[in-house]
Amino acid sequence: VRSIVKTLMDVTAREKKPDDLSLPPDITIQDISFVIDDLKERMAEAAAELNFEKAAIFRDKIRELEKMLVR
C-alpha cells in the first residue's frame, strides 16, 4: 500500500495528468480505499495551500479510483 501511495506522490510531484497515474494490477479493494483516503487528505492540503491545479489532479484520480470500486 505504501508503495502505491509513494508512486502516486512521485507522479503528482512531477505534475502529470491523472491518466498517467498507474496502479499495480493486483491492487485490492482495501488498498484502493486506503489510497482514496490518502488522496482526499492530499487534495485538502493542496487546496488549503491554494494549489488548485494539484488539488484537481488529486480529485480526478479519486474519481477514477471510486469508479474502480463500483465495478
Oligomer: single chain
Question: How far apart lie the N and C ends?
Answer: 20 Å
Helix content: over 70%
Quantity of strands, as a count: 0
Please state the overall shape, judged from the principal axes of the Cα atoms: globular
Rg (CA only): 11 Å
Proportion of β residues? under 5%
Poorly predicted segments: none
| Classification by helices and strands | mainly alpha
Alpha plus pi helix count: 3
SSE order: HHH
* Average of the residue pLDDT scores: 80
Largest sheet: none
Give structural attributes:
single chain, 71 residues, mainly alpha, 3 helices, globular
Characterize the structure shown.
- The chain has helices at residues 2-13, 29-48, 52-70.
- It has 71 residues and is mainly alpha-helical.
- α2 packs antiparallel against α3 (52-70).
- It is globular.
- The chain contains 3 helices and no strands.
- 72% of the residues lie in helices and 0% in strands.
- The mean pLDDT is 80.
- The chain starts with a helix and ends with a helix.
Question: Quick recap of the structure?
Answer:
With 71 residues, the protein is mainly alpha-helical. The chain has helices spanning 2-13, 29-48, 52-70.
Helices and strands, with pairings:
Blueprint: H1 2-13, H2 29-48, H3 52-70
